[in-house]
UniProtKB/TrEMBL annotation:
It comes from Sulfurimicrobium lacus. The lineage of its organism: Bacteria, Pseudomonadati, Pseudomonadota, Betaproteobacteria, Nitrosomonadales. NCBIfam families: PRK01222.1-4, PRK01222.1-6. GO terms for molecular function: phosphoribosylanthranilate isomerase activity. It comes from the Bacteria. Pathway: Amino-acid biosynthesis; L-tryptophan biosynthesis; L-tryptophan from chorismate: step 3/5. Keywords: Amino-acid biosynthesis, Aromatic amino acid biosynthesis, Isomerase, Tryptophan biosynthesis. Residues 4-198 form the N-(5'phosphoribosyl) anthranilate isomerase (PRAI) domain. The keyword Isomerase applies. This is N-(5'-phosphoribosyl)anthranilate isomerase. It is an enzyme of class 5 (isomerase). It holds the Pfam family PRAI. HAMAP family: PRAI (MF_00135).
């Protein structure tokens, strides 16, 4: 079964809604320019309200080590997700499992990315948009993904209830990741869209 993460959760209710409809993980954004930014206090309240077996993932973009450490002092995250130019050594330095996001465009060698970030739990593949590290709501050419990568693939970028089943059946990723595709407005999720998205995930024939 393909796993699913609902990213950019900003309220307790949205976190509970994601879990109720079967999301395996939620994403909490610690990137100040993002409209989905949460404070450490907000994030801790959301995490504390989740039922068992829902993974909490903290998203960072080119942070200073102290920024990540400050979050981890206040909040036990299950996983870190790095969306910038972080080195493998930096990503691994916090003693927490991590994902590396890669913005996909022609001539990006995903096999080499997977080799370089071999200690990651997976590669999160997102659309490349100049100057924007993620959350654009745009998809990329899934044909650019090699059939075999040495790390699990988390497919992101432009996914929504209408296309997630097709995406899973074509790419066969370990997991899918959605943010803007299930929103009512930036940072606020739509419960009906989350439900429809998760139905698409669970109905995929893989």
């Amino acid at each position: 079964m393909t796993r699913a993460k609902i990213c950019g959760i900003t309220t307790i209710e949205d976190g509970r809604t994601a879990a109720r409809h079967g999301a395996d993980a939620i994403g909490l954004v610690f990137y100040p320019p993002s409209p989905r930014l949460v404070s450490v206090t907000q994030a801790a309240e959301i995490a504390a309200a989740l039922p068992p077996f829902v993974t909490t993932v903290g998203l960072f973009v080119n942070p200073q080590a102290g920024e990540v450490e400050a979050v981890l002092r206040e909040l036990r995250l299950d996983m870190l997700q790095f969306h910038g130019d972080e080195t493998p050594e930096f990503c691994a330095s916090f003693g927490v499992p991590w994902l590396k996001a890669v913005r996909v465009k022609p001539r990006v060698d995903l096999v080499q990315c997977a080799i370089r970030y071999r200690d990651a739990r997976g590669l999160l593949l997102d659309a490349f948009v100049a100057g924007t590290p993620g959350g654009t709501g745009l998809s990329f050419d899934w044909g650019l993904i090699p059939a075999e990568l040495p790390l699990p693939v988390i497919l992101s970028g432009g996914l929504d209830p209408a296309n997630v089943r097709t995406a899973i059946e074509q790419v066969k990723p370990w997991a899918v990741d959605v943010s803007s595709g299930v929103e009512a407005s930036k940072g606020i999720k739509d419960a009906a869209k989350i439900a429809a998205f998760m139905r698409g995930v669970h109905s995929a024939n893989v």
